[in-house]
Structures are given as C-alpha cells and as structure tokens.
Amino acid sequence: MAENTKIEWCDHTFNPWMGCTKVSPGCAHCYAETRMDKRLHKVRWGKGQPRQRTGVANWKLPLKWDGEAQKATGAFDESFFNQAKLSQKRPRVFCASLADWLDHEVPTQWRVDLLNLIEQTHNLDWLLLSKRPESWSARLHEAMGGGSELARRWLNGEPPANIWVGTTVENQLLADERIPALLRIPANVRFLSCEPLLGPVNLSAIPTGEGHGLNEAFPRITMNPLRRALRDAPHVHWVITGGESGPNARPMHQDWARSLRDQCAAASVPFLFKQWGEWRPADDRDSDRPHWVGIPDGSEEDFSDSPMVRVGKKAAGRLLDAVEHNEFPQP
Ligand code: SF4
Questions:
Q1: Using an 8 Å Cβ cutoff, are 254 and 306 in contact?
Q2: In this structure, is residue 170 part of a structural domain?
Q3: Does 331 reside within a domain?
Q4: How many domains does the chain have?
Q5: Quick check: CB of 20 below 6 Å from ligand 1?
Q6: What is the pLDDT of residues 142-184, one digit of tens each?
Q7: Which residues of the chain are modeled with pLDDT < 70?
Q8: How much distance in Å is there from the Cα of 189 to the middle of ligand 1?
Q9: I need a labelling partner for 154 at 20 to 30 A (CA). Which of 62, 138, 251, 293 fits?
Q10: How far apart are CA 98 and CA 303, in angstroms?
Q11: Whole-model pTM?
Q12: Would you say the CB of residue 195 lies under 6 angstroms from ligand 1?
C-alpha cells in the first residue's frame, strides 16, 4: 500500500486505507476498485461498505522516507522549510491511490492519524488529491474534534507547508463544481488532476463562489483560476492532464489536452502531460488499425475530426504534439 511509484509526478504513494464510493464519471473504471475489490477481494467498494485500514508497517514507511529525505537535504530548520517547501528535491508523496482522503465513510480517527503522520514528516510534500473538495471543511472539523492540531490550524487559515491540495477535473461540469471548492481551501499549492480527461475544460469562466453565503443576490464572479496567479488571490498552481488507461479506457481528444496546455502557457502555470492512456491520435502508421470516431461516456464531443487508435498505454506514450511536458510548481 506504500511503494516507490511509477506515477510521473510523485516519488512515493501512500495508502492509509482502501475502499471508496464512486462519485463522478472519472470513477467509472476505477483502477483501485478493479484491483482491490474485483481482483484481490481485499475490500468491497461502495456506499456503506467498510473501508480497510492498511497495516502498521505500511504506516511506518513515510517516517522512513522522511528520515531519508532529511539525510539528503540536511537537518530540518524553519528557514530551510520555508525556502525549500516547493523544491524539486523534496520527495512528493501521493496520498491516496486506492481511496479518497476526504471520503466521509472513513472513521475520523484514521484521518486524524493521517494528519498527525503528515505533521511528523516535514521533509515530505504530501499531495492530497480528492474528488470531494467540497467536503474539506466538514472532514477537517471532524478531525479537529478528534484532536488534530494540524486540522485546527488549517481551519484557522494556516495551511500546512508540506501539503499540496488537489482535485480531479474530468470535464467542464466538474471543473465548475470542484475548482471553486478547491479555491476555498487554504493552501500553499493547489493543483488539478485533469485525468481521465473526458471532455473539454475551459478555465476562463469558472465560478469562484466569491460572494456566496453573504448575499444570495450577489452576482457570481467569474474568473480564470489560472490567471488569478497574477494577483494575490487563491488560484491553481499546477495542472496535470492525462487520458484513461485500462481495459475499458475512453479516449481523450487531442484538442482537450492542447487547450489545457495552451491555457496554462498563457497564464504561466506549470503543465504536466502525464499520458495519452490507451488511445493516441491516429497518424500515418495507422491505416490498418480500426479508428475510434465515436462519442465517449461523459462527453458530448465526437472524434470524427481526430480519430484515435488503441495502442496501449506504453505505446501511446506521453508526447503532446511531439513535446514532453513535465513542469512542476517552482519555489
Ligand atoms: S474517488 Fe477515486 S478511489 Fe474513489 S471510486 Fe472514484 S476513482 Fe476510485
């Protein structure tokens, strides 16, 4: 449940528990469910099914990684922490690949223990990705009630320096719902995982939610959460994009990925193109292969202007218009 990972944008994955409930189209072919429920029968997926906490030895691994990172970078002190908090030298830990850290069906004590572990591991940057960013406040209040000092400070507007908080955005509908919720979370680094990307996403008119709760008649302010980087307002610092992999993978139109790339470039926001997934755009090599020109689930777009071929994740690779995009937030 903890491992050196093959995920391009982190150094380790850590799973404090396993199990989840599907919440949106990106969950349709959930890799974690396929592996841990259907194949290995370690946990049952879905609402009302008990989640499985991982073992004591697994929970010790981040402490080991933290010790290794400290040896590599020198003794911890406050100035180092502040200066190096976004450095590429700091190992990044993805939490969690087999669950959602804001899942409300997880016992509060487990989340308290996770936040305590994060607090103890100053030399690691924790990437907390969720499809439930709107529930951050409720889950943190529960954790604070359970004794988490980190949760108390975070709710008080003091985001932990070693947490990057992210949300998954599969299409425009979810961008409109989840990005405003993400922007409401106090954070030093916020990121979007646009994977599996199932439709076009225009970030120029995301409702930020400003004014909500103050006055129902207050007009919604629309603003590009990338361009907000140019002023002192909550914004998105990093965008990861990728297509779906696995047996039933849906294709990603190349224009959807190009558009996110170009929006990030225009706003000077780092962009990482993780993978095409199972499908890549057809080219001269593919005259004998069957092409996808249909309409994937969760999208109104068709592919007749850009046929896709299924070649497998490895062969599809991660070049977008012949370029590898590997950008990260910088200190
Ligand atoms: S939120 Fe993540 S772990 Fe949970 S069902 Fe969806 S894809 Fe799977």
A1: yes
A2: yes
A3: no
A4: 1
A5: yes
A6: 999 999 999 999 999 999 999 999 999 999 999 999 999 999 9
A7: 1-6, 73-88, 208-222, 231, 295-301, 331
A8: 22
A9: 62
A10: 31
A11: 0.90
A12: no
